[in-house]
Design brief:
This protein has 203 residues and is α+β, with helices and mostly antiparallel strands. It has 7 helices and 10 strands. The longest helix is centred in the C-terminal third of the chain and has 13 residues, at 152-164.
Length: 203
C-alpha cells in the first residue's frame, strides 16, 4: 500500500501532501506513483502537476545549431554527480529550491544506484553544465539542470535522450519555453500516470 495519497488527489497547484522526509524508500515510492518532492516556503511538499511536461520517447528536438555546439563539450555520465547537484542548487539562480537536505538525499540515491547525472565539460576540463535525475526502469525523472556556458545543459540533455533511446520516458515536470524548444510537451496527469506505469515496469 502506498504511503502517499493518490496522485490524482493533488490540489489545484499540483501538491499532493506536505511533510515527511527524503528517505530513499520514500523518494522511490513517490516517483513510481508520479509524485516528486520540492520544498515550498520552508516546507517539504510533494507534487503531481496537471498537466505534466515530458520528453516523449525519441521526442527530443536537436537543432542544427545545438549539434554544432555539442562538439565543444565532452559528455560524461555519473562522474560528477554531486558537482551537478551543487550547480543546480546555486543560490544565485532564481526560484532556487534545492536545499542542503535535498542535495544530501539525491547524493544518497546516487550512491544506491538510482540517481544519475550527465555532465558537459569544456575544453579546459571544467564542468560547464549538466542534468541530474532518478531512473526507474524506463523512466528518467529529470530533477534539475544548469549551465555555465552556451547550451551546455542542452548538450547534456540531448546526450541523455540519446543514451536512453526510444523506449524511455523523460519526465521534466513543468513545461518552460526552454524545454518546449527541445521538444517537451504537456500531457494530462491521467495520461502521464498511464505512461509512467508502463515505463517503470520496463527495463
Amino acid at each position: 500500500m502506498s504511503v502517499f495519497p493518490a496522485a490524482e488527489t493533488a490540489d489545484e497547484h499540483g501538491i499532493v501532501c506536505v511533510g515527511g522526509d527524503l528517505r530513499p524508500e520514500l523518494l522511490l515510492a513517490a516517483y513510481r506513483e508520479g509524485i516528486f518532492p520540492m520544498p515550498v516556503q520552508g516546507h517539504l511538499a510533494w507534487w503531481s502537476p496537471d498537466p505534466r511536461a515530458i520528453l516523449a520517447p525519441g521526442g527530443m528536438h536537436v537543432s542544427r545549431s545545438l549539434r554544432r555546439t555539442r562538439r565543444r563539450y565532452e559528455i560524461r555520465f555519473d562522474t560528477a554527480f554531486a558537482e551537478v547537484v551543487v550547480g543546480c542548487a546555486d543560490p544565485r539562480r532564481p526560484h532556487g529550491w534545492i536545499t542542503p537536505e535535498v542535495r544530501a538525499a539525491y547524493v544518497r540515491l546516487h550512491e544506491l544506484g538510482w540517481a544519475h547525472s550527465v555532465e558537459a565539460f569544456d575544453a579546459d576540463g571544467r564542468l560547464a553544465g549538466g542534468v541530474y535525475g532518478v531512473q526507474i526502469g524506463g523512466l528518467f525523472a529529470a530533477e534539475s539542470m544548469f549551465t555555465r556556458a552556451t547550451d551546455a545543459s542542452k548538450a547534456a540533455l540531448a546526450a541523455l535522450s540519446e543514451r536512453l533511446g526510444t523506449a524511455a520516458l523523460i519526465d521534466v515536470q513543468w513545461l518552460t519555453p526552454h524545454l518546449a524548444s527541445l521538444g517537451a510537451v504537456e500531457i494530462a496527469r491521467e495520461e502521464y500516470l498511464l505512461r509512467l506505469a508502463r515505463a517503470v515496469s520496463s527495463g
